[in-house]
Amino acid sequence: MKKINWPLWLGFVITIFAFLSYPFIFANWATTRDFPWVNIPLFIVALVLLFIGVRRAFAPGRRLASKIIAPIVATISVLVIVMFVLTAFVVSRWLPPSTNAPQVNQHAPEFTLKDTGNKPVSLTALLTEPLNNKPPRGTLLIFYRGYW
After folding, report:
1. DSSP assigned state of 98
2. Which region, left, alpha or beta, applies to residue 130 given φ > 0 means left and ψ of -120 to 50 means alpha?
3. Cα separation, 84 vs 22, whole angstroms
4. Domain that holds residue 23
5. pTM
6. Considering the domain boundaries, does residue 82 fall inside one?
7. What span, in angstroms and rounded, lies between the C-alpha atoms of 145 and 66?
8. 147 falls in which pLDDT band (50, 70, 90)?
9. Count of domains for the chain
10. Is 120 inside any structural domain?
């Protein structure tokens, strides 16, 4: 009777889940986006299972196919883990710091942009000109990534 090498395959599935869960799930919250503290234990569990699975594949009496497939699956999993670690801890540090970006509650620098009617509008005009016979109290700036 053929026995499936469940630690190997479970380790592979956990590796793929840990890799994909960061951008699609954990990057949505600051506590898990800033440092992938949920993904690291998942990768550790996956590595332990992969180690057990490879040892099990080379146990006496195992089929040749198991001895060929196990190292391939383990290598792919390790490469996925290395790619995640490089992306999360090395490449992400290459981004330039935003030292000149306005901070929360800080006054924005003067600017002039075109509105939806293609008319130039300046920040000073928004803060000084009355709107609907009411004096301006402030301006809300919303930044969109990209363009359309």
Report:
1. -
2. beta
3. 9
4. 6-94
5. 0.66
6. yes
7. 49
8. low
9. 1
10. no
